[in-house]
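Much of what follows relies on a compact textual record of a protein's fold. Here is one such record, which you should read through line by line:
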Amino acid sequence: MLRWVTALLLICFASSYARQQPPPELKKDRKPAVTSDKEEVPPEEDTSLAKEDLSFNPLQATKEIAAGNYYFKKGSYLAAEGRYKRATQYNEGNAEAWLKLGETAEKLKDRKAARTAYTKYLEIGADAKNAEEIRKKLARWK
């Protein structure tokens, strides 16, 4: 019984002490967080909503292609397409990513996207081994 009374008294004292302390944002000796005229935007807490930095990164593009290849072999073409698109965002000059993106779009029966990807692939790798085959395929689609 004595333990319960002691615990109750400690809780009461702690809560009354907490009510006596002013909140940190109301302390007079603190300076405002924003010192410039522009209002700073806090970083996004939800990582799914935060914008990614998709600047030139060939290493990340290679990783995205490898992941896309895995999904392509597995038969998950939408996931593969997403990975290949990200690879092209990280490195627009990566011919393999454009080729794989075109093949995936073909599997998804999206000829417009496949044509765009294959055209970009032919711009980058005009002297590739399969360039003539892809040109013939694009000519048939017209």
Helices lie at 2-20, 58-74, 77-90, 95-107, 111-124, 131-141. The domain at 58-141 is CATH 1.25.40.10 (Serine Threonine Protein Phosphatase 5, Tetratricopeptide repeat). The CA atoms of residues 34 and 142 lie 58 Å apart.
